[in-house]
Design a protein that fits this description.
Layout lengths: L1 H21 L3 H5 L1 H15 L6 E8 L4 E7 L1 H24 L6 H20 L3 H19 L6 H32 L4 H4 L3 H5 L4 H15 L8 H4 L5 H7 L4 H16 L3 H24 L3 H22 L2 H32 L11 H4 L1 H15 L5 H14 L5 H25 L19 H15 L5 H11 L16 H22 L7 H4 L3 H23 L4 H24 L12 H19 L3 H21 L3 H21 L12 H27 L5 H12 L6 H9 L1 H30 L1
Antiparallel strand pairs: 1-2
Helix pairs in contact: 1-5, 3-4, 4-5, 4-12, 4-16, 4-21, 4-22, 5-6, 6-7, 7-10, 10-13, 12-16, 13-15, 14-15, 14-20, 15-16, 15-20, 16-18, 16-19, 16-21, 16-22, 18-20, 18-21, 19-20, 19-21, 19-23, 20-23, 26-30, 27-28, 28-29, 31-32, 32-33
């Protein structure tokens, strides 16, 4: 598995090289990779090699980190979808992107995305998951924003990245909390800690964090709005992301974490309610949309809501139904998206209302393929979508908690899916109003959507061919799952009658709206739409950032120092005083009269520095402070440190003296309020550091590093002064870095001074 995933990433980075030699055949060459993976997985399945199969690569032995991968029934099913649909997308994209710009970049990122998705579904520990999770977000951002010269593409890409990145942070928190509770970071072993997790006080925070992460990725309400905007991406991206890959990542997580966090009322209520709301909202918005890609995007949101609700209900029937629907959706939705791209190319528009009249006569092949997929989408026999729909209806009819809500949600969604079916087949192809010319496309572009459409029909007629693989995946989600057999016909039962009712109501809604020219109006909710809230929130954050920058980054070093010290004082002070507590060993405080005199001299000199208006006087006072502190170091037995401090102090004073003639002879007097503020910050910071030092001496840290330095400073580094040895030997690279920074800063100042002189001479 590691070699397989690594090979995909290597292939991706070689794409620019291959483009020079392969040109228009590049995508067909790249399609060999997903096809090889698909065939290998099928061979593995047909040879009856037992699951699970694990593979790992050590990353860091000290921290016990490794890249672990795990192939079981669930990851096998998702890997088949990613590679199988991926192969067809490459074939389709070869024709679709033939005349497009930046093809090399497009296929490189698409290949990286495919590798990231495979890595995500095969990953077996939280580190691997997080790496591939974020990689899918980054690559999808680049794919959505492929046409970066368009403002809409840039906006959609940023929106998708911000929403999914927010979810990634939530997921990170959830996985970290899970690790804290169980001390287990291998996903395949977490199911053993189900009782511990579900009864722990951190269960609700863990559940919310993991759920929010998956909600954002799978476009669940109220995070669903990024998905329709992502239609700014090229159609092959939409077909791949919204059928088998990115939006299914969250669904995969619900399935994977069901035996870990599921089986509770909280899990069922959260997932099933959010899923139910999402499926209704998505279905209604799909019927309302005129843009064919946005229509399909909203229907995808609805379908993802169906899957979320199924895994939320979590019964044996629900898990099986949800897994069946994942396959059905992948087949019909990839077909419809690819056909939407073809229709866009041929008609020159994405708006269904602007399609040329009687399109079914002019594009008979396109009409047939769309109908094949749309029948499955609407859940009409004998397509695989009908099999999935029957199972979903069985699921809600036999559920106990919130059964009325589930039935209503599935029925409403099914009704509007049927209405959308007529939009795709009748409104799009039987219009009699708009005139327009059609552009020609290569016949090969129809191959990929035809394959997926026929697969939906074949699996509908012979659904039992998938029973074993779906049962294997379901058994991973539901440990006590008993193998089930799929069938096209289950007789005249309640599920069939509900399915028939949804078809009749959906047909009535479509033709009634067509006759009365009626459209759904949701203006009441416009201002409350999550997308509007996102826009206002985004603008608010930008405004807050500008205001904050104007207040903090003023260009005055004094203000920067003040803000830095205030943050340290507030955060560290609060933690120290109210969390850790003050601990002082009064017996260890041993101050000599000589040290008190030096301390008094330092305070007097500092006071004189603060209140004098003469630059020279201030510098002299600072030099007195430096000398007094150096004597304190010397008296404490650190002559090297004292010498270093004197040299630095002397150098600093010298630099100040050299530039003194450029400054006003007298310093501007600050307001008394400003002086009081500065004094409070300075005294507070000094007091805090003093108290921290007292606490450290009272209860020294039990650090192995301290012992290491003590044992090796003289024996290994040949130095008796531990501080010096640390600076120039053990942490020599840190010291070198600091010296380099100072040198670069000095060169920059020197260049600026010379530049100023040269300008004056000119």
């Amino acid at each position: 598995m590691i070699i397989c995933i690594l090979s995909i990433f290597i292939l991706a980075f070689l794409v620019p090289l291959f483009q020079k030699f392969l040109a228009d055949k590049l995508s067909f060459f790249l399609s060999i990779a997903p096809l090889s993976i698909f065939i290998s997985l099928l061979h593995l399945y047909l040879t009856k090699k037992s699951f699970p199969i694990s593979d790992s690569l050590e990353w860091n032995s000290y921290f016990n980190l490794e890249l672990a991968f795990y192939l079981d029934g669930l990851s096998f099913l998702f890997s088949l979808l990613i590679s199988g649909i991926g192969f067809l997308i490459y074939i389709y994209a070869g024709f679709y992107m033939k005349d497009a710009k930046h093809k090399g970049r497009f296929f490189m990122i698409l290949t990286l995305f495919m590798g990231a998705m495979l890595g995500l579904v095969l990953a077996d520990n939280w580190l691997s998951i997080l790496v591939f999770w974020e990689l899918t977000s980054i690559t999808s951002f680049l794919l959505i924003g492929h046409n970066n010269e368009k403002k809409s593409a840039r906006y959609a890409a940023w929106q998708g990245l911000l929403i999914t990145a927010f979810g990634g942070l939530a997921l990170l928190a959830g996985l970290v909390l899970t690790g804290i509770v169980t001390d287990e970071y291998t996903i395949s072993n977490l199911s053993q800690h189900h009782e511990l997790l579900t009864h722990h006080t951190l269960y609700i925070p863990i559940l919310l964090c993991v759920a929010v992460g998956a909600f954002t990725k799978s476009a669940q309400f109220p995070f669903h709005f990024w998905l329709p905007n992502a239609m700014a991406a090229p159609t092959p991206v939409s077909a791949y992301l919204h059928s088998a890959t990115m939006v299914k990542a969250g669904i995969y997580f619900f399935a994977r974490f069901s035996p870990i966090l599921g089986g509770t009322v909280e899990w069922q209520m959260l997932l099933s309610s959010i899923g139910g709301i999402t499926m209704i909202v998505g279905a209604i918005m799909a019927f309302k949309s005129d843009n064919i890609k946005k229509l399909l995007a909203y229907s995808t949101i609805s379908a993802l809501g169906i899957m979320t609700m199924a895994y939320g209900i979590g019964t044996e029937t629900a898990v099986f139904a949800g897994t069946v629907y994942i396959i059905a959706h992948a087949l019909y939705k990839s077909t419809l998206f690819m056909m939407a791209g073809i229709l866009d190319k041929q008609t020159g528009t994405k708006k269904i209302s602007e399609f040329p009249k009687l399109l079914y006569k002019k594009l008979p092949v396109a009409f047939v393929i769309v109908c094949l997929a749309a029948f499955s989408f609407a859940g009409i026999a004998p397509f695989f979508g009908f099999v999935a729909k029957e199972l979903l209806l069985e699921m809600v009819l036999h559920s106990s908690l919130l059964s009325s809500f589930y039935i209503a949600a599935v029925l409403i969604t099914s009704v509007f899916f049927v209405a959308v079916f007529f939009v795709l087949t009748h409104k799009a192809f039987f219009s009699k109003e708009v005139k327009g010319e059609l552009k020609k496309v290569h016949k090969g572009i129809f191959v990929a959507p035809l394959v997926t459409a026929l697969a939906g029909l074949a699996f509908g007629i012979f659904p039992d061919t998938l029973s074993h693989s779906i049962s294997k995946a379901s058994a991973t989600i539901f440990p006590t799952f008993e193998a089930k057999h799929l069938a096209l016909w289950h007789g005249f039962n309640d599920a069939f009658y509900l399915s028939l009712l949804s078809i009749l109501l959906g047909t009535a809604i479509y033709f009634t709206s067509l006759k009365l020219n009626w459209k759904l109006k949701l203006s009441f909710f416009t201002s409350l739409q999550p997308s509007k809230i996102y826009d206002r929130l985004f603008k608010g954050i930008i405004s807050l950032g500008k205001w904050q920058t104007s207040k903090i980054q003023t260009g005055y070093l004094r203000n920067y120092a003040m803000v830095t010290l205030l943050v340290i004082l507030i955060l560290t002070g609060y933690t120290f005083l109210f969390k850790a507590g003050i601990r002082i060993d009064t017996a260890a405080i041993d101050v000599y009269f000589f040290e008190l005199i030096l301390g008094l001299i330092v305070l007097i000199a500092l006071g004189f520095t603060l209140f004098t208006r003469s630059n020279i006087s201030a510098l002299l006072s600072l030099s007195v402070v430096g000398i007094a502190i150096s004597i304190i170091f010397l008296e404490a037995g650190a002559p090297d440190l004292a010498i270093t401090f004197i040299l630095i102090d002397a150098l600093t004073i010298t630099v100040f003296v050299l530039i003194l003639h450029k400054l006003p002879k007298k310093m501007l007097r600050k307001r008394n309020s400003a002086r009081v503020r500065d004094a409070i910050i300075a005294l507070g910071t000094g007091l805090l550091i003093t108290l921290i030092l007292f606490s450290i001496t009272y209860d020294p840290l039990n650090s192995k590093l301290k012992e290491f330095y003590a044992e090796n400073s003289y024996s290994a580094a040949k130095g008796k002064n531990m501080v010096n040895v640390i600076l120039v030997d053990f942490r020599v690279l840190d010291t070198l870095g600091e010296i380099s920074v100072l040198a670069i800063a000095a060169l920059g100042v020197f260049a600026l001074v010379n530049y100023s002189k040269n300008r004056k001479s000119l």
